[in-house]
What does this fold into?
Amino acid sequence: MDISDGIRILAYLFNGGPGPTCKAVADANGNGDVDISDGIAVLNFLFASVGSIPPMTETEIQNCISPPTPTVLRCGSFGTDGPEPTHGITGCIELMSDDTLRLSNFFYDGDGVPQVVVYMQVSWSDPDGLVVSPDLLGRPYFGETLSFPIPPGVTTDEFRYVSIWCDYFPLHYAIGRLRSPPCFSPCVPSE
It folds into this structure.
């Protein structure tokens, strides 16, 4: 453990940095969540000799070595629950048990202005949703699988829709509703 561990936790939480490869390791204070107190705990332990870092349980160690395969919690597809998609957008939407949103078999021509993002919403017309991706503009996507982390501390239970959202107009380029599995073809949940 060194200063880079505390900085990585804080960068993940506040600057869109990469998420922890093992949540139990990043949960430095052992409270079951990765939050600002973990970054502070690491830095206090290293530089102020304050507190301790609790040992990981055998289960946590095993899950870090061989993490459980994420499962699909809810799923949908673009073009089934809203306006006809523009810019050739199609694909499957999967909200995963590892706190990620996965788009699979995703097609989008990469055009638009000035920013196009993946956006989670409570209702179809919700203007105040959650942006979960960087800007998608600038390159086409041809049947790709993209995975975006859900920001720490966000509970996704209330989100029912996922859209490809253009800030400029503002409008949906495509929208899909999240439903409980099983998903219908071509969006069959991966197990």
Q: What stands out?
A: Residues 12 and 18 are 6 Å apart (CA to CA). Residues 3-65 form one domain. The mean pLDDT is 86. The chain has two domains: 3-65, 72-177.
